[in-house]
Amino acid sequence: HVANILLLQFLCSHHLAVVGIVLRTMSRPSGEFVYEFQGPYLGPAGVIIGLPLVCYMLVAACNADHCLSHLNPPTGLDWIKIPSGQVIASSEGFLAVIGWVTWLVVLHVLLPGRHVQGNKLKDGSQLTYKLNGGLCLLVTYLAAVYLGFVANVLNLGWMYDNYLALLTGSLVISVTLSIYLYATSFKRGALLADGGTSGVALYDFFMGRELNPRVGSFDLKEFCELYPGLIAWVMLNLGCAHKQFTRTGAVSWPMILVNLFHLLYVCDGLWFERSILTTMDITTDGFGYMLAFGDLTWVPFTYSLQARILVDHTPNLPVWFLASVVALNAVGYVIFRGSNSQKDQFRRDPNHPSVKHLKTLKTESGRQLMISGWWGISRHINYFGDWLMGLAWCLPCGAQPVAFFYAIYFAVLLIHRDGRDGHSCSVKYGKDWDKFKKIVKYHIVPYVY
């Protein structure tokens, strides 16, 4: 009860702070600043308040007590309640999140890693990044598997039993980090992101003012993008598998596939960690609530949805269906990895033997746009592969509609990202971008969209 009261106080103060920022900034002129996410007020406020509620609603929609479907439709708001055996907040959950982030900070600092330079920033400087995400994942995951499944001395199922408390702890950390990032972005000499300097406090808090905030040489944005959230995602999955194992004495094939699919995706992201240094998140977006919440809370606690559902609702699926799901995930991965590797190699060295044969469109800015290979098929062919994998992650849950939240949400996200990138390229390349669109006609899905 004390934990719930503290959570209520936190949420109320959090939402009141948002309302206060809105009221203080509504009279400010917008000028010619281009706002995203339906900004500067409605969109950011909606995301700041609404997306955390979505995380909680997904737990309420499908848990050990019930799971909403066409056979079990909701009646009123009775389904919105804390699942049996769960608490919405606890000191143990909060301390576990603190301990988790601390563990990865220590690993990142102490373990060896490559030191590489990022893209040139708008002031001409280049930052050096230490990359060892794959090693951090390897040490953490293998230790958890051994201690949980082999030595039987670590109750990984505790994560499933305390899922809501961990979610709340993560949300508190995300908001606290966002406030810190906003406050420290006003320090002298901070390099600011163009999209986070509107002068509207709410919008800038959401988008992020400072481009690459650091504590010494420790890059906060790159670390949060790939370490705590991504690795927590597969650890939560592992906890769900362990919970199923302790209940039934076995891990089902749907649970195994979900764990393997997600582990492959996270391993890929951390093995090719260098690729993120050329993405919009690192080169363009500031580090604010949007990325902090997305990295630390949204990713681990919505992407682990299928594994959590399978603990209590495992369908009996035929072998041919499971084999088809594996094939779909494989096709998606080939498209995703092939296109991303081609793009990353071209950006680093367009004369490399693997990409020098590609046709390009020369622009007045001096840059070249690929118009053949993977990138001649659609403007974001990597998004198509990414979404196919996302669909494959949902299918092991059978006909459970809540499990398909990810595929629906991800489609909306990718279309929005395509729009953001299209606008950015239109500004950057002008008429050359119009020429490019006539050559590469499809946005994401070849011959469809």
Q: What does this protein look like?
A:
- The chain contains 17 helices and six strands.
- It is mainly alpha-helical and 449 residues long.
- 38% of the residues are buried.
- The N terminus is likely disordered.
End-to-end distance: 50 Å
Percent of residues in helical segments? 55-70%
- Percent of residues in beta strands: under 5%
Tally of strands: 6
Task: Specify the overall morphology.
Answer: globular
Largest sheet: 2 strands, antiparallel
What is the H/E string? HHHEEHHHHEEHHHHHHHEEHHH
Number of helices: 17
Radius of gyration: 22 Å
Task: Provide the low-confidence segments as ranges.
Answer: 1-31
* Structural class estimated from helices and strands: mainly alpha
Order of strands across the biggest sheet? 1-2
Average pLDDT score:
89
In short:
It contains 17 helices and 6 strands.
Question: Which key terms come to mind for this protein?
Answer:
single chain; disordered N terminus; 59% helix; two-stranded antiparallel sheet; globular; 17 helices; two-stranded antiparallel ribbon; 449 residues; mainly alpha; 4% strand
